[in-house]
Design brief:
There is one protein chain. α2 packs parallel to α4, α5 crosses α9 and α6 packs across α7. The protein has two domains: 82 residues, Methionine synthase domain (Methyltransferase, Methionine Synthase (B12-binding Domains), Chain A, domain 1); 120 residues, Rossmann fold (3-Layer(aba) Sandwich), CATH 3.40.50. By secondary structure, the protein is an alpha/beta fold. 57% of the residues lie in helices and 12% in strands. A five-stranded parallel beta sheet has the order 2-1-3-4-5, sandwiched between helices. The structure holds CO-5-methoxybenzimidazolylcobamide. The site of CO-5-methoxybenzimidazolylcobamide has 37 residues, from α3, α4, α5, β3 and β4.
């Protein structure tokens, strides 16, 4: 008999949002933690989706349905991942950079940051440098978080940092970057203040950057 984790991974692969949501609720009712469900079910399923997509065994519309199923599961976990009740330790403006529509990882980083006591202003995906600049002027965050999943959009991270510099705002905020093709060396090269390899590392980095770690 397959475990609830295996079932969850399967429904993510099949793009079944209704079942993803139901199985997450079942897992919670059976006493699993939000983090266990996320790591062992939803993320495992999405990892397999990525592998199949790469092999040409899955195509964009199917991947999109899988992404929706993952989001449906995350929707249930969201209040739990973000419910530490910690007092506000800072403000994060978060977005996926221009040209890039991937937002699942970025959403996870946002949830983890909320859970550790940050106010998170999520600008969404395909965010051009000037919108980050406007958001920094408007919200005066402590940290700007940039996400990119494509090798072709990584350079937009550098352009965003440059735009902040040109607007005279770079000294007023810390910039952290993350996403599958990004690494610490790239972060350093474009002048970011840090790199998070996953959602928890991103949250811990944000805490370090505001001196709350
Ligand atoms: Co796309 N896609 N996709 N895709 N997609 C990838 C990224 C890819 C690796 C698949 C592959 O070939 N194996 C590949 C990129 C290759 C490359 O550039 N190296 C790819 C491609 C090529 C494309 C298109 C070009 C396909 C096409 O149209 N021919 C197209 C591009 C569209 C665009 O953006 N302009 C495209 C489209 C899509 C969908 C829209 C269908 C969908 C996105 C839906 C959505 O996000 N709402 C999609 C998906 C779902 C994927 C895969 C399968 C899954 C991504 C994901 O959500 N992973 C992905 C393959 C894969 O990664 N296995 C793939 C789960 C998520 C939890 O992980 O996003 O890595 P991740 O986030 C992690 C860390 O990276 C980190 O923490 C997160 C949690 O641990 N992190 C941060 C992320 N941001 C951070 C920020 C931080 C700190 C940490 O601080 C600020």
């Amino acid at each position: 008999m397959s475990t609830i984790y295996e079932k969850l991974a399967t429904v993510v692969i099949e793009g079944d949002s209704k079942q993803a949501s139901a199985l997450v609720q079942q897992g919670l009712a059976e006493g699993l933690t939000a983090k266990e469900i996320l790591d062992n079910g939803l993320i495992v399923g999405m990892g397999e989706v990525g592998a199949r997509f790469k092999r040409g065994d899955m195509f964009v519309p199917e991947v999109l349905m899988s992404a929706e199923a993952m989001q449906a599961g995350l929707q249930v976990l969201r209040p739990l991942l973000a419910s530490s009740g910690a007092k506000l330790i800072g403000k994060v403006v978060l977005g996926t950079v221009k040209g890039d529509l991937h937002d699942i990882g970025k959403n996870l980083v946002g949830m983890m940051c909320e859970g550790s006591g940050f106010e998170v202003i999520d600008l969404g995906f395909n965010v051009p440098p000037e919108r980050f600049v406007d958001a920094v002027k408007e919200h005066k965050p402590d940290v700007v978080g940039l996400s990119a999943l494509l090798t072709t959009t990584m350079r937009a991270m550098g352009y965003t940092i440059k735009a902040l510099e040109e607007a005279g705002l770079r000294e007023s905020v810390k910039v952290m970057v993350g996403g599958a093709p990004v690494d610490a060396e790239f972060a350093q090269r474009i002048g970011a203040d840090g790199y998070g390899s996953n959602a928890v590392a991103g949250q811990e980095l944000a805490q370090q950057l505001v001196g709350a770690a």
